[in-house]
Amino acid sequence: APLLVLMAGLIAFFALGLHRYVTIATLSENRQVLLDWVERGGAMAGLVFVLVYAVATAFSIPGGALMTITGGFLFGIVFGTLYVLVGATLGATALFLAARTALRKPLQARVGPAIKKMEAGFQENAVNYMLVLRLVPIVPFWLVNLVPALVGVPLSIYVVTTFFGIIPGTLVYSSLGNGLGTILDAGGEPDLGIVFEPKILLPLIGLALLALVPVIYKKVKARKDGV
Questions:
Q1: DSSP for 85-152?
Q2: What is the end-to-end Cα distance of the chain in Å, rounded?
Q3: Do the Cβ atoms of 69 and 190 come closer than 8 Å?
Q4: Cβ proximity of 136 and 212 under 8 Å
Q5: pLDDT by residue for the chain (227 residues), tens digit each?
Q6: 115: CB partners within 8 A, 6+ apart
Q7: Which end of the chain is more exposed for a tag (fewer CB within 10 A), N or C?
Q8: Treating both helix axes as pointing N-terminal to C-terminal, what angle do 126-135 and 198-226 enclose, rounded to 10 degrees?
C-alpha cells in the first residue's frame, strides 16, 4: 500500500501538469515572493522546505537539483545544505521502507539464490557500496533509494550513508543557488549539469574510490590467504 501511494502520487504529479512548474523560469518569476515568504516565516519556512523536499524525494519527483539550488538561494549555503540533507534523507528513507516492505520478499521468491548471493556481497560491504552510490551522481537518485531496499541493506546504514554521501553534491548545488540572484540579474541560467563537469565530478569519483579501498583490500587479502 505505501508503495502504491507513492506511485499514484508520481503519476498524479505528471497528470496534473505540475512538472511544468519545476523550472528555472518559475523560480525566477517568483523569487521575490519566495524570499519575502522566507523572511516572514523564519524557522517555519525552513521546516516547510524540508517537508516539501522530503515529499518530492519520496514520490521520486524529478527536479532535485533545481530544488537544491532553490534551497541555497532561499536559505544560504549552510542552512540550504542542511535543509536539503534532512529533507532528502527523510524522503529517501520513506521510499526505502516502502520498497523493502512491498518488493523485497516477492523479488526473493522470484529470483531465488541469485538475490541471496547479491545480498551477501552487498551487506558485507554495505557502508562502502552505499557511499559509492551516493557520491557518484551517475546513477539516478531514485534508483539508489530502491536498490538497497531489495538487497537487504540495514536501515541505520542506509540513513547514515545517505545523509553523509550526498553532502558533496548538495554543497555544490547550494553554493550555485547562493549566487543565483546574480546569475538571474545578468540574464543567465544556472548550470544544472555542473556536477558533471570534470572539476566537480573527478573529486567525487576520487572520494568514491577511497570508499572502495577497504573492499579491495579485503578481497586481495582473502585471495592471498586462500593461496
A1: HHHHHHHHHHHHHHHHHHHHHHHHHHHTHHHHHHHHHHHHTHHHHHHHHHHSTTS-HHHHHHHHHHTT
A2: 50
A3: yes
A4: no
A5: 777 777 787 888 778 777 777 788 888 888 889 999 999 988 899 999 999 999 999 888 888 888 999 999 999 999 999 999 999 999 999 988 888 887 666 666 665 565 666 677 777 788 888 888 888 877 788 888 888 887 878 899 999 999 998 898 899 889 888 887 777 776 677 777 777 777 777 887 888 888 777 777 666 666 666 65
A6: 107, 108, 150, 151
A7: C
A8: 160
Taking only Cα atoms into account, the Rg of the chain, rounded to an integer number of angstroms, comes to: 19
| C-alpha–C-alpha distance, residues 141 and 27, integer Å | 22
- d(Cα 2, Cα 7) in Å, to the nearest integer? 9
Residues sharing a CB contact under 8 Å with residue 102, sequence separation 6 or more, in sequence order: 1, 2, 3, 4
Which CA distances in Å does 27 have to 31, 74, 190, 194?
6, 11, 11, 18
Burial readout 141-178 (b: 16 or more C-beta within 10 A, e: otherwise): bbebbbbbbbbbbeeebbeebbbbbbebbbbbbbbbbb
Residue indicated by cell numbers 546574480 = 182
